[in-house]
Amino acid sequence: MIIAVDIGNTNIVLGFLQHGTIVGRYRITTKSDHTADEYGLMITQFLALHGFTADDVDDVIIASVVPQVMHSFRMSIMKFFDIDPMVVGPGIKTGINIRIDDPKSLGADCLADCAGAYYTYGGPLLVVDFGTATTYNYVDERGTITCGLITTGIQTAAAALWGQTAQLPEIEVTRPKSILTKNTETAMQAGLYYTFLGGTERIIEQFHEEIDGDFQVVATGGLSGMFQSATDMIDVVDPDLIFKGLSIIYEKNAD
């Protein structure tokens, strides 16, 4: 069994992969003050829910965009599993080329997403990750990331809305039943949803205008499913894309 870990700004997402099949998925709130013991206890408890123990884990691979969490999380893997985890970064084979101005600036999560998308669906494609930030990365037919775009995530926009206004409440980010809203909560939900949906479609449209040739659009991330049925501009929604990418990267480096 391999544990694939995506350490993001909002959540740490764990995937238990057995012979390439995802047999468990769990989320932990990202907190820089969690200790190695706390992380280790949570992971072993998640394993136990599936009838597994630490002895069943052969290796761990991590993609992280939160450096301040890495020390305690990595120490938890070493202490509870006696494994020095593989970390996506310089020197790791990914099967993806990066042709942007500063390749090292590309997030490990974006790189894993692109590897998962390219080796699962082929290229060319635009990989959209609806996370704390929303990222768009274009992968050509040869598996090369040539350009990308970063904007706010819808949950981040929502937090800014109620955090910077005295009388607006904290709300659940969800697709509203109608844009014809009659109270503050649903008005906020509709405003956020349709603003974000429209922006997503316009960005994808602009990629189509400026790129010579057609491409697939593959979306992932915790809130990607919310837009799946609302637009025909997204071809595939794959919530497990990061795990597929990490599994591919692991296999390329396992020796």
Walk me through the topology:
Elements: E1 2-7, E2 11-18, E3 21-29, H1 36-49, E4 59-64, H2 67-81, E5 86-87, E6 97-98, H3 108-121, E7 125-130, E8 133-139, E9 144-152, H4 154-163, H5 184-210, E10 216-220, H6 225-228, E11 236-237, H7 241-253
Parallel strand pairs: 1-4, 4-5, 6-9, 7-10, 10-11
Antiparallel strand pairs: 1-2, 2-3, 7-8, 8-9
Helix pairs in contact: 1-2, 3-7
Could you characterize the architecture of this molecule?
The chain starts with a strand and ends with a helix. It is built from seven helices and eleven strands. It is α/β, with parallel strands linked by helices and 255 residues long. α1 (36-49) crosses α2 (67-81) and α3 packs across α7 (241-253). It folds into two domains: 2-87, ATPase, nucleotide binding domain (Nucleotidyltransferase, domain 5, 2-Layer Sandwich); 97-246, Nucleotidyltransferase, domain 5. β2 and β3 form a beta hairpin. The strands form two sheets. Strands 6-9-8-7-10-11 form a six-stranded mixed sheet.
